[in-house]
Amino acid sequence: MNFIIKILLSTCSVLIADYLLKGVHVRDIMTSVLVAFVLALLNSFLKPILVVLTIPITILTLGLFLLVINALMALLVTKIVPGFIIEGFWWAVGFSLIISFLNYLINIENNKNRSNYR
């Protein structure tokens, strides 16, 4: 049940990013649910591999290369999910920044609620 709630909240993040960025286009709500789900899968399985493989460049750039990895993941989702379009690399960077920030805020609130129940 917790996974479904996270996907739905990530769906809201995708819709907000679509609203804020003119270079990001989501066809409908079901497409944004699919985008959130595919992003969750890629972040669970592919992103850790990419992070480990790019440790030297990540250290040299003081962690900024992680933005590139996130943008590339967003561009990969555009290839997988029909109806989801990002017009370029910099729009993908903006999309990943907005998604990361909103998911960070969601996780802060989730952790506060979880600590209140202990």
Give a quick precis of the structure.
The protein has one domain (2-116). Helices cover 80% and strands 5% of the residues. It has five helices and two strands, in the order H-E-H-H-H-E-H.
Domain module count: 1
Share of helix, binned: over 70%
* Uncertain spans: none
**Which term fits the overall shape?**
globular
- How far is it from the N-terminal to the C-terminal residue, by CA? 19 Å
Element pattern in H and E: HEHHHEH
The computed structural class is: mainly alpha
Biggest sheet strand line-up: 1-2
Beta percentage is: 5-15%
List the total number of helices: 5
Largest sheet: 2 strands, antiparallel
- List how many beta strands DSSP finds: 2
Cα gyration radius (Å): 15 Å
Instruction: Round the mean pLDDT to the nearest integer and report it.
Output: 91
Folded structure, characterized:
There is one protein chain. With 118 residues, the chain is mainly alpha-helical. The chain has one domain (2-116). 80% of the residues lie in helices and 5% in strands. It has a two-stranded antiparallel sheet. The relative contact order is 0.17.
How is this fold's topology laid out?
Blueprint: H1 2-20, E1 24-26, H2 29-53, H3 55-60, H4 65-80, E2 84-86, H5 89-116
Antiparallel strand pairs: 1-2
Helix pairs in contact: 1-2, 1-5, 2-4, 4-5
Offer a few descriptive terms.
5 helices, 5% strand, 118 residues, mainly alpha
